[in-house]
Amino acid sequence: MKLNGIVLSPDPRLRQECAPIEEITPEIEHLVEKMKDDMFENGGCGLAAPQVGELIQLAIVDTDYSDESDYDPYILINPVIVEQSDNLVPYNEGCLSIPGINCEIKRPDHVVVEAYNLDGDLMRYEASGDLMCVCLQHEIDHLHGMTMFERLSPMQRVHALRAYQEALDRGAKPGDTE
């Protein structure tokens, strides 16, 4: 199911491994523009291609925009975490594909990610202890068929799934959080 252009859990596309992008085509460029629009319209800070129904390794991230004038997401094609710390810290995460709830997820507090941009240049992104660090990991998880539910313990997952169903019943839409 899609709402406001966003695929919602438990859509099976959110649980599939995405294919690497072999060539940056006009179709990929068009998809990036659509994803930018969808992310901005839903108030997100990151969006992965499977969240709009495309099973390819593409994500966009912008964690510090305040309005349309400074909105300029990083484009991550075939992103890979090349370094990460062993220190796990909790962060209260939301997801456009799982509206209406937040989940406390423990993740490394430092990552280095390599990905290609739309020009085909290999880029390196480093983030520590902030929303960018969490967002990079969250979006890369999506490209490997993992939602934040899979990062939870079994009991936390049961609680989160119940809260998510209640949020949907209340009419939660992408961008809504607790």
Could you name the key traits of this structure?
178 residues, alpha+beta, Peptide Deformylase, 5-stranded antiparallel sheet, two-stranded antiparallel ribbon, 9 strands, 25% helix, metal-binding, Peptide_deformylase_sf, iron, peptide deformylase activity
Write the layout of secondary structure elements.
Layout lengths: L1 E2 L2 E2 L18 H16 L4 E3 L9 E4 L12 E11 L3 E6 L9 E6 L1 E7 L5 E7 L2 H13 L10 H16 L9
Antiparallel strand pairs: 1-2, 3-4, 4-5, 5-8, 6-7, 8-9
Task: Report on the architecture of this protein.
This protein is of the alpha+beta class. It has one domain: Peptide Deformylase. Helix content is 25%, strand content 27%. The protein has three helices and nine strands. It has helices at residues 26-41, 131-143, 154-169; strands spanning 2-3, 6-7, 46-48, 58-61, 74-84, 88-93, 103-108, 110-116, 122-128. Strand 8 and strand 9 form a beta hairpin. The longest helix is centred in the N-terminal third of the chain and has 16 residues, at 26-41. InterPro entries: Peptide_deformylase, Peptide_deformylase_sf.
